[in-house]
Amino acid sequence: MKVEAVLKAEKGDILGASRDFLGKLLAEGLVDYLLVPLEISHGRTLAQTLVKDPAHLDKANPFSPVLPVNSASIVSQLTIDKPGKKLGAVLKPCEIRALVELVKLGQASLENLVIIGTDCLGTYEVEDYAKFVDEMKGAAEKKGAQVLAKMRQQIAQPDTEPLSISLRPACKMCNSFTPILADITLGLLGMEEEIFVSLDGELAEKLGLEVKEASGRQGAIDRLLDSRTQAREQVFADFRERTKTIVDFADCLDTCMLCYACSAACPICYCRVCFFRTDTFEPESERYYRWADREGALRIPTEILLYHLTRLNHVAISCCGCGMCESACPRKLPLTTIFQTVGDGVQKALKYVPGRSLEEEIPLATIPEVKV
Amino acid sequence: MCSGSIDPVYVLKALLDGADGVLIGGCHLGNCHYQDGNYKAMRRVEVLKNILRQVGIDEERVWLRWIDASEGGLFSETIQQMVDELRAKGPNPMREPWEVWQETVGCRLPGIESKPSKRG
């Protein structure tokens, strides 16, 4: 039975309180390892780190403002052959959704895994954040806390001046920023000098947490949900309006250089060897000249549309909206918009919400109801 | 090859290379040697058509029909019907992919004003 509790943050030290909490999970043996974002490079960026020794948690930030990789891929690596280790993974909602999809696809295991889900206030592009931290004044070890405080203030009072860097496109349109399938939830929305915790009642008792309802939380979630849903619908409407023909669609991809970075960054694109990295469709050189003879001119590389349309077919149903594809894209093609909008269409048609439940099968693997 | 093993990439490849239509033929529902291969094909084609529609490619160019190996007559009728319907549609506009790239107006990223499309 889950209960709601709070962690007191002395002098508003949210990161300190969250680090203490994570340290307790290790100390009490509830988990033997923690996967958690740690500040590296003097706080200029953060990296998911597998922590055994709690001493390293002094650099931990479970509310990391960057998402260098979607950690579902990391959890897949750490759990796929069921090593029997008690792992606690600190994940953002989009990472949990991707993980749920990977579990359904047989690419990760929840055995011995404790999912510690966090409220996500949004994330910045890694390069933007590093530059921003460089330009901040003050001690390096305090910058993470300062950014977090500003982000919380921005959400609590949307009319305050925003940071000079803007959230990743996927985060601006994200309407699923609180964890759904977490064993332990760490929440910041609607909280002031406390962290909201939702967890098993016995566990709360063992950790000596104060069981208490968080009164302002739901209201804060609803307000953010409203504005994000509005932004999301607008992105969908604009994209649908501007892509009536395949030419319009190609327009969004016309500087693609087929580097496959989007596929490498996508947590759902899990194939070890992608079809497009094989020579299946690679013709002998002479064929290109024949195509050019036939068409008069031939754009090379030839498979840009084929690649993106195929990836849509493979991924759209499970696309969890993390936007890693666009963050990875050297040309900054609007991949988040494409995959989220087309994904939304496919998911609604098949009545499927990726990452919502472990029981719900991915529709591609189910038998549709039809009369024979 | 079982209809359940058809990856959409093959259908897309044919369409983008200019095929006027693609027919995916499978065994009748309930007759699958592998139990549910044709049901899986149905699901994949459902997703494929949905995506084609969303990106502005005529989904009616993809046909999924149940035709047994022994149903020569049905196969011939289906092909005839498909040819008639595709002929009525005219050639696949993707036939000249070079023109597709000619008509794009440069990556429309947010904040970058794009020139109006030739197609209006």
Q: Could you describe the 3D structure shown?
A:
The complex is a heterodimer of chains A (372) and B (120). Chain A is an alpha/beta fold and 372 residues long. Chain A has 2 domains: 2-232, no CATH class; 243-365, no CATH class. Chain A contains 14 helices and 8 strands. Chain A has an 8-stranded mixed β-sheet with strand order 3-2-4-5-6-7-1-8, with helices on both faces. In chain A, helix 2 (72-79) crosses helix 3 (93-104) and helix 8 (217-242) packs across helix 14. Chain A is globular. Chain B is mainly alpha-helical. The longest helix of chain B is centred in the middle third of the chain and has 19 residues, at 37-55. At the A-B interface, helix 9, helix 12 and helix 14 of A face helix 1, helix 2 and helix 4 of B.
Give the key terms.
heterodimer, A: 372 residues, alpha/beta, 2 domains, 12% strand, B: 120 residues, mainly alpha, two-stranded parallel ribbon, 2 strands
Order of H and E elements of chain B: HEHEHH
Main beta sheet of chain B, described? 2 strands, parallel
Mean pLDDT of chain B: 86
Low-confidence stretches of chain A: none
**Biggest interface found:** A-B, 49 and 42 residues
Bin the strand percentage of chain B: 5-15%
Number of strands of chain B: 2
Q: Which sheet architecture does the biggest sheet of chain A show? A: 8 strands, mixed
- The order of strands across the largest sheet of chain A is 3-2-4-5-6-7-1-8
Given the structure, what is the number of helices of chain B?
Answer: 4
What is the N-to-C order of secondary-structure elements of chain A (H for helix, E for strand)? EHEEHEHEHHHEEHEHHHHHHH
Radius of gyration of chain B: 18 Å
Helix content of chain A: 40-55%
Query: What's the helical proportion of residues of chain B?
Result: 40-55%
Count structural domains of chain A.
2
What is the multimeric organization of the chains shown?
Answer: heterodimer
Can you tell me the overall shape of chain A? globular
Please indicate the count of domains of chain B.
1
What strand line-up does the widest sheet of chain B have? Answer: 1-2
Structural class from helices and strands of chain A? alpha/beta
Shape of chain B: globular
